[in-house]
Amino acid sequence: MKQVVVHPERCVGCMQCMIACATAHSRTKTLFSASCEDPLPKPRIHVGAGLYGEGFPNRCRHCDPAPCMLACLPGAISRIPETGTVRIDPDICINCASCAMTCPYGVIRFHEDASAPPGKMIAVKCDNCHDRQKAGQIPACVEICKSGALTFEEMDAAMKRKTDEVARTVSPDARKVPEAPGVDLLNAVKKAQIGMRKI
Ligand code: SF4
Ligand code: SF4
């Protein structure tokens, strides 16, 4: 089963994933009209800034077992077996925040949402773009990310590729091998910021 894999070393902090995510979870599914909706659609992936301003895309890991699911007393959180997706049912959620208190990654937010009854505050987090996947599409954040920081692939294949990338990096001829997309740009930004701090 394919999953969204995060490669934080490639993130350039452009936040395009956040915009694409909010649009994908809007009523109208287009950026222009989504920006006029009430409630305003919000992203379920959040890009944080590191020490040097470098980006880190933080999203639900769909843990197994999932602490949020264990903490949810009304049973609003369940797993979709076909995809492994941990999903929150907006009709059952009572907005008690028990899930957010147990999530180690701080990825659950509380607000009104297009999927919830009008005016109801609910717990909201990444749903792996379940509806898009059912329609044969990949998650919106992956589709928009041009630096390769988010990929949608089989976990075994991702781990093998990662191991190969690390192996090439420690190889004596590593300098001859082009770096992964985004790494050059990220390194340039970091060096510039470090240089600016010394001035
Ligand atoms: S919300 Fe947090 S605890 Fe629940 S599955 Fe996602 S990462 Fe894990
Ligand atoms: S806020 Fe909603 S999803 Fe979270 S634990 Fe409470 S009822 Fe469950």
From TrEMBL:
Residues 2-30, 84-113 form the 4Fe-4S ferredoxin-type domain. Pfam families: Fer4_11. The keyword Protein biosynthesis does not apply. The keyword RNA-binding does not apply. It comes from the Bacteria. Gene3D superfamilies: 3.30.70.20. GO terms for molecular function: 4 iron, 4 sulfur cluster binding; metal ion binding. Keywords: 4Fe-4S, Electron transport, Iron, Iron-sulfur, Metal-binding, Repeat, Transport. Coiled coil: none annotated. This is 4Fe-4S ferredoxin.
